[in-house]
UniProtKB/TrEMBL annotation, chain A:
<dbReference type="InterPro" id="IPR036873">
    <property type="entry name" value="Rhodanese-like_dom_sf"/>
</dbReference>
<dbReference type="InterPro" id="IPR045886">
    <property type="entry name" value="ThiF/MoeB/HesA"/>
</dbReference>
<dbReference type="GO" id="GO:0005737">
    <property type="term" value="C:cytoplasm"/>
</dbReference>
<keyword id="KW-0067">ATP-binding</keyword>
<keyword id="KW-0808">Transferase</keyword>
<dbReference type="InterPro" id="IPR000594">
    <property type="entry name" value="ThiF_NAD_FAD-bd"/>
</dbReference>
<dbReference type="GO" id="GO:0004792">
    <property type="term" value="F:thiosulfate-cyanide sulfurtransferase activity"/>
</dbReference>
<dbReference type="InterPro" id="IPR001763">
    <property type="entry name" value="Rhodanese-like_dom"/>
</dbReference>
<dbReference type="Pfam" id="PF00899">
    <property type="entry name" value="ThiF"/>
</dbReference>
Automatic annotation (TrEMBL), chain B:
<keyword id="KW-0819">tRNA processing</keyword>
<keyword id="KW-1017">Isopeptide bond</keyword>
<dbReference type="GO" id="GO:0002098">
    <property type="term" value="P:tRNA wobble uridine modification"/>
</dbReference>
<feature type="modified residue" description="1-thioglycine">
    <location>
        <position position="94"/>
    </location>
</feature>
<dbReference type="GO" id="GO:0032447">
    <property type="term" value="P:protein urmylation"/>
</dbReference>
<feature type="cross-link" description="Glycyl lysine isopeptide (Gly-Lys) (interchain with K-? in acceptor proteins)">
    <location>
        <position position="94"/>
    </location>
</feature>
<comment type="similarity">
    <text>Belongs to the URM1 family.</text>
</comment>
<dbReference type="Pfam" id="PF09138">
    <property type="entry name" value="Urm1"/>
</dbReference>
<dbReference type="InterPro" id="IPR015221">
    <property type="entry name" value="Urm1"/>
</dbReference>
């Protein structure tokens, strides 16, 4: 890293952190020379990017292929209601440039892939994982090992967050040689997230990033867990580099590795054509009062919205529910997309019960009934 | 003897939404046996989110007294009286 000189305006802007014993003018110059790549301008990326920009990281790269939606704004506070449908990297750039015109922002309005990363990653010193999916976490960790760059990993869901640094080894594959199977992936869109939880973790990622640049010890080989409900932080000691880790022993080229295959096949969306009914048919049955609708989504989704007079039996309880036996009307299962309700039909069929399901689920119902609210 | 079990990252949902359990043990168990014991006696729903085949599901990290189980023998570690054992499902959200 070539150390940059600081202007009087910069010294004024960063004065309060320059005062820190661990910082000084030298530390600020290190920040000015640093190039940090942030993957994801969402819940983690929002506070992270704001603090990195505020602190005067000389070059910040932002990668995100998504656009801003209203549903993001409770936690993705770098965006605003005025930036709906705008790419998130671009939306973030606008606020960051206002916060700190002294720094350089490079935006990539695309998803990070094995291919696209080849022209992006080599130009940066540190990579920060601020994404929301399993595939990108393995890809970014592998890129860190491949290019020998530290990776700061954060994640958040519901009331909990996790933080660790791959510097770059031990890496994600040392910890999790096998990825979480698809049926165990959980998402904010299914189970929710409190806005400030990724806020806390993204802020901690900013602190670790700054410490790395200053040459201070970081959270390597340790896992920090934050539970917002009990207001507890816990720190755990993790294993060292695994001797059998394929990434750390140089066997993984992230630009050519087949991540889709590694993560396992996406299960086919179940479809049973002769058990499907469409929205018009369901509407007719409702008008005739000749249907028992069973909604198989989880209770929070059900409580926000459901078709009138539906009963609620979550998909994982369908097999053991006695309510299904007691209905005299034809049964129609519904869920968000039609997938779980098709599975429900299969489950009750195995018990000798006839049922059908709403094709396209409540998403399709919303198209037919604009007053129905589902997200 | 008994051990303290903590679940997080969503695993608590499988154990009646309990984040903490005190589990009495009549005999000494290895960690592998303890995993089966928890599945057989305490798990309420969706065993496929706790185990894959006869081992713990990938993506779950186990800590024995705040230390990665890899550092203390993993499956073969013999559980001691009053050990604190945490099962943490790694999160991917952001």
């Amino acid at each position: 890293m070539v150390e940059a000189e600081l202007s009087p305006a910069e010294i004024e802007r960063y004065h309060r952190q320059i005062l820190l014993r661990e910082f000084g003018l030298e530390g600020q110059k290190k920040l000015k020379s640093a190039k940090v790549l942030v993957i994801g301008a969402g819940g983690l990326g929002s506070p992270l990017l704001l603090y990195l920009a505020g602190a005067g990281i000389g070059t910040i790269g932002i990668v995100d292929g998504d656009v801003v939606e209203t549903i993001n704004l409770h936690r993705q506070i770098i965006h605003s209601s005025n930036n709906l449908k705008i790419n998130k990297a671009e939306s973030a750039r606008r606020l960051l440039q206002e916060l700190n015109p002294e720094i350089k922002l490079e935006i990539y309005t695309q998803w990070l892939t094995g291919e696209s990363s080849a022209s992006i990653v080599p130009g940066y010193d540190i990579i920060v994982i601020a994404t929301d999916n399993v595939e990108s976490r393995y890809l970014i960790s592998d890129l860190g090992v491949y290019y020998k760059k530290p990776v700061i990993s954060g994640s958040a869901l519901r009331w909990e967050g996790q933080l660790t640094v791959f510097s770059p080894s031990p890496c994600i594959r040392c910890l999790f040689p096998q990825p979480t199977p698809r049926h165990a992936w959980s998402k904010a869109s299914d189970i929710g997230v409190l806005g400030p939880i990724p806020g806390v973790i993204g802020t901690l990622q900013a602190i670790e990033t700054i410490k790395l640049i200053l040459g201070l010890p970081v959270l390597s080989r340790k896992l920090l867990m934050y539970d917002g409900l009990s207001c507890q932080f816990k720190l755990f000691q993790l294993r060292d580099t695994s001797p059998t880790c394929p990434a750390c022993s140089g066997q993984i080229n992230p630009h050519t590795f087949n991540y889709a295959e590694f993560l396992g096949q996406i299960p086919a969306i179940p479809s049973i054509p002769d058990k499907e009914i469409n929205c018009a048919e369901l509407k007719r049955l409702i008008e005739l009062k000749r249907v028992q609708i069973i909604d198989v989504r989880n209770s929070n989704h059900f409580n926000i919205c459901h078709i009138e007079n539906s009963i609620h039996i979550p998909i994982h309880d369908v097999e053991n529910s006695s309510e299904i036996f007691s209905s005299n009307e034809p049964l129609v299962f519904v869920c968000k997309t039609g997938a779980d309700s098709a599975r429900a039909v299969e489950k009750v069929e195995a018990r000798g019960i006839e049922a059908s399901y709403l094709k396209g689920g409540l998403d399709a119902w919303k198209e037919a009934e604009p007053s129905f609210i589902i997200f | 003897m008994s051990v303290h079990i903590a679940f997080s990252g969503g695993l608590e949902d499988l154990f009646n939404k309990q984040r903490n359990l005190t589990v009495p043990l009549e005999s000494q168990l290895t960690l592998k046996q303890l995993v089966f014991h928890l599945k057989d006696r305490y798990l309420q729903t969706r065993p496929e989110l706790f185990m894959s085949g006869d081992s713990l599901r990938p993506g779950i990290i186990v800590l024995v007294n705040d230390m990665d189980w890899e550092l203390c023998g993993k499956d073969d570690y013999v559980v001691q009286d009053r050990d604190a054992i945490s099962f943490i499902s790694t999160l991917h959200g952001g």
